[in-house]
Amino acid sequence: MKIGITGGIASGKSTTTLYLKEKGWPVIDADLIARQVVEPGTIGLKKIVEYFSKDVLTSEGTLDRPKLGSIIFSDPSKRQQLDRILHPLIQQEIKRQMEQYKAAFIFADIPLLFEGNYETWFDETWVVYVPFETQIDRLMKRNGFTKEQALDRIHSQMPLEEKKQLATRVLDNSKEPQALYDQIDQILNELLGGCC
Ligand SMILES: CC(C)(COP(=O)(O)OP(=O)(O)OC[C@H]1O[C@@H](n2cnc3c(N)ncnc32)[C@H](O)[C@@H]1O)[C@@H](O)C(=O)NCCC(=O)NCCS
Ligand SMILES: Nc1ncnc2c1ncn2[C@@H]1O[C@H](COP(=O)(O)OP(=O)(O)OP(=O)(O)O)[C@@H](O)[C@H]1O
């Protein structure tokens, strides 16, 4: 069974997938793939430099992620251009990895699952949900962002309330992490027919 995991920025996707990995399930990570397709020497990085100029490179020639982030999260047209460059490369690699794994459950953590129309790739989609204020608080704390920076990033994605409506299942991550893990265990037990 293929399960797509999504949510909003800082809603708890990695907290969810870390737990699944600890339980031994394979997890494909779109954020990790997004980093791999822009490593030095890749077509991804070459195309980014063509569009955004060498200003988005560090002195070592790697992608200056905070710099590119500050450009694209405050300018939707530039973000869309970055998406046009990277998403085909990211999609191709997700597909390749999905075909590689053989397990009862294959999970893929894809922040832009609904924005990128990945729904048809999965038997189920799980949305990791937190209320808006919790999302802002956790994002500001984790990244050291101002409220404005946090809001720019949140507003660059489909609202979490909308994602909630589209999901097969909603995981509530507003309480302590153990409450999230209990929900995951309950769903996995249900899907495995209560056998394990
Ligand atoms: C702009 C970049 C370099 C900023 O890097 P940074 O290290 O600060 O952020 P990181 O990659 O850890 O992403 C953090 C979160 O931001 C959100 N996010 C990233 N890219 C986008 C985007 N294009 N649109 C909306 N949200 C995004 C996701 O929720 C992601 O989990 C980076 O986010 C990036 O390369 N984005 C484009 C690739 C992409 O779309 N990734 C999502 C995979 S589905
Ligand atoms: N239940 C929780 N209680 C308190 N803090 C939490 C909880 N779940 C996650 N966090 C914290 O919130 C932040 C965001 O969590 P996490 O990294 O799992 O989100 P994410 O959805 O993977 O983020 P991104 O979209 O940036 O990849 C982290 O600092 C994490 O430690």
Short characterization:
This protein is an alpha/beta fold and 196 residues long.
Sum up the structure in keywords:
196 residues; alpha/beta; Rossmann fold; five-stranded parallel beta sheet; 9 helices; binds dephospho coenzyme A; binds adenosine-5'-triphosphate
Q: Could you walk me through the main structural features you see in this protein, from its secondary elements to its overall organization?
A:
With 196 residues, the protein is α/β, with parallel strands linked by helices. It has a single domain (2-194), classed as P-loop containing nucleotide triphosphate hydrolases (Rossmann fold, 3-Layer(aba) Sandwich). Helix content is 52%, strand content 12%. The protein is built from nine helices and five strands, in the order βαβααααββαααβα. Strands 2-3-1-4-5 form a five-stranded parallel sheet, sandwiched between helices. Bound molecules: dephospho coenzyme A (COD) and adenosine-5'-triphosphate.
Topology (elements, then pairings):
Elements: E1 2-7, H1 13-22, E2 27-29, H2 30-36, H3 43-52, H4 65-72, H5 76-100, E3 106-109, E4 124-129, H6 132-143, H7 147-154, H8 160-166, E5 169-172, H9 177-191
Parallel strand pairs: 1-3, 1-4, 2-3, 4-5
Helix pairs in contact: 1-9, 3-5
Strand order within the widest sheet? 2-3-1-4-5
Small-molecule binders: dephospho coenzyme A, adenosine-5'-triphosphate
Number of strands: 5
Beta-strand portion reads 5-15%
- The assembly state of the depicted protein chains is single chain
CA radius of gyration is: 17 Å
Q: How would you sum up the global shape?
A: globular
Average residue-wise pLDDT = 97
Low-pLDDT segments: none
> In CATH terms, what is the fold-level topology?
Rossmann fold
Q: Report the CATH superfamily.
A: P-loop containing nucleotide triphosphate hydrolases
Helix content: 40-55%
GO molecular function, one term: ATP binding
Pathway: Cofactor biosynthesis; coenzyme A biosynthesis; CoA from (R)-pantothenate: step 5/5
EC number: 2.7.1.24
Keywords: ATP-binding, Coenzyme A biosynthesis, Cytoplasm, Kinase, Nucleotide-binding, Transferase
